[in-house]
Amino acid sequence: MTARIIDGTDIAAGLSQAVADAVKHVTEDHRIEPGLAVVLVGDNPASEIYVRSKTAKTAAVNMRSLFYRLPVAVPEDELLEQIERLNQDATVHGILVQLPLPPQIDSRKVIEAIIPLKDVDGFHPLTAGLLSTGLPGIVPCTPLACIMLAKKVHGSLAGLEAVVIGRSNIVGKPLAQLLLMENATVTIAHSKTRDLPEVCRRGDIVFAAVGRAEMVRGDWIKPGATVIDVGINRVSAGQGKTKIVGDVAYTQVAEIAGAITPVPGGVGPMTIACLMLNTLKAACMQNGLPPPNVGA
Ligand code: NDP
User: Fold this and answer.
1) Is the CB of 230 under 6 A from ligand 1?
2) What does the pLDDT look like over 37-60, one tens digit per residue?
3) Among 191, 245, 276, which residue has the most ligand 1 atoms within 8 Å of its CB, making it the best to mutate?
């Protein structure tokens, strides 16, 4: 069997177009121009790339893009003051502080400083609480992207066995919550899980969010299962060059799976499109408008 490739770039383009159309309506009908502020501390090359693509996409979907660069040695209280200014600015609907942050800054304090209504990354503990209790709110971008991609293959996820490898607060845990809301039967695996290959073989859908290059092997996958690869790992490509691979051994898994996301070109572009959707959603929530009917 050769798996169907789930083209995240193409699906993300469709979602971005829908967001752009909805932004146009909100701007024309309600005079609200959704705005996303991105804050970058320092000059980490990977973060630079992520931030550049986020700000470019913001403008491409007709939203206001604001970018703040702070020096790598910026004291924590200066960053918190910047966040507070953005919290108070009514023209800013979403705030994103690019992680990781330098060691003098407590990431948890920064995440908690962003008011939940503008928390478009969905990392604030209150946002996590809303999600885990099934209340409406912002849904973290990467887990949301994973669900949308899985639904492209299966339609409904109800009754499916879903295995999530990874239990981080930003991917694994919220993804498991979303899968429960979709009525999947969920197993969360992590570094202490016994016999991970056997656990994975239960999955009608396997989500890999580990951060270990090509860890998930072909014989871990039930024939015909769907595999969603969240991992972004930079590895050597020989001759001093590097390349990006996922957490899944793509070539061998694609021989067994029914459908698979590539890396790059799978979850990554969908995550950015979901960030745009979240910013639009935040702008609607802050202005008493119903949530946009996009990406459902
Ligand atoms: P974390 O490092 O926060 O979490 C990794 C998780 O994997 C932990 O729960 C850890 O278990 C588990 N784990 C580590 N080693 C093993 C192992 N050998 N077997 C089983 N489980 C293991 O990572 P993130 O959740 O932040 O990110 C995961 C991956 O997704 C990374 O590659 C990251 O770059 C990528 N990513 C991609 C995004 C995108 O847009 N495509 C967005 C965000 C992340 P334990 O809890 O026991 O330590």
Assistant:
1) yes
2) 999 999 999 999 999 999 999 999
3) 191
Kindly report the backbone phi and psi dihedral angles of residue 119, in degrees, each rounded to the nearest multiple of 5, phi listed first.
-85, 75
- Cα(90) to ligand 1 centroid in Å equals 35
- The backbone region for 158, taken as left when phi is positive above 0, alpha when psi lies in -120 to 50, beta otherwise, is beta
Say which CATH class 141-268 falls into: alpha beta
Note if the pTM is more than 0.90: yes
pLDDT in tens, 181-203: 999 999 999 999 999 999 999 99
Pairing of strands 259-260, 226-229: parallel
Q: For residue 174, how far is its CA from the centre of ligand 1 (angstroms)?
A: 13
In this structure, which amino acid lies at residue 179? L
CATH of 30-115, one of 3.90.226.10, 3.60.21.10, 3.40.50.2000, 3.40.50.10860: 3.40.50.10860
